[in-house]
C-alpha cells in the first residue's frame, strides 16, 4: 500500500498552506526556508523535495518576479483612465514605441583617467533630434489613423527643444503622419507591449556575448530578425 504522504497530516497541511502563501507574497524566498519554518513551528521535519512536490500539486510554480513601481500608487486615476481606453484603441491599428539599453558582456575593465577621477566610457542616450529623425523616417503601410503608445520621456513631448533646432514639434510631426500619441500612465512600463519585445531582444543578444559595439550591433540585428518571425499581436494581448 505504501506510506501515507506527510502532507496528508491536517496539521502539517494547514501550516504548509500558511507558509506557501508567504512564499507567494515574497516574505519567504525558498522552499528550504519553508521546511525550516515548519520544523520550528511543529517540530516535524519536511524535506525540500516534499515541499516541491506539494507546490507542484497545488500548481504553484517558480517564476521570474514582475516588479512594479511603487510610484504607481500615486496615479490610480490615470491608470484606470488608460485601461478604460484600451477597448477604443483596439479598434484601430496601434503602434508601440520605447527605448532600451544594451550592455557589453565583456569589455576592457581598465582605461585611463586623471588621478582622482573615474575612468568611464559612455554612449550618448536618446536626444530630441534622434527621436525626431526616427519619427520622420517612419514608412507606414497605411494612411489610416494610427495610435502610438509611448511613455512620458521628455523627448516624446519635445516642443521647445524642437523649435530651437528649427524642427516641427513632435506632436505636429505625428499629426502630419496621421498618428495620435497615447501616453502611458506614469511608471507603467508593463502596459507597453514593446517591453516584451525588448525582453526577447535582450535574451537573444545575451546569448551571443558581444565584446565590441560592432558585435553588439550585429547581435541586435540578428535578434530583431528572430523577433520579426514572432506573432507580435500576442504582446499587445498580453498587456
TrEMBL record:
InterPro entries: RNaseH_sf, Tc1-like_DDE_dom. Signal peptide: none annotated. One of its GO terms (molecular function) is nucleic acid binding. It holds the Pfam family DDE_3. Residues 126-216 form the Tc1-like transposase DDE domain. This is 4122_t:CDS:1. PANTHER family: TRANSPOSASE.
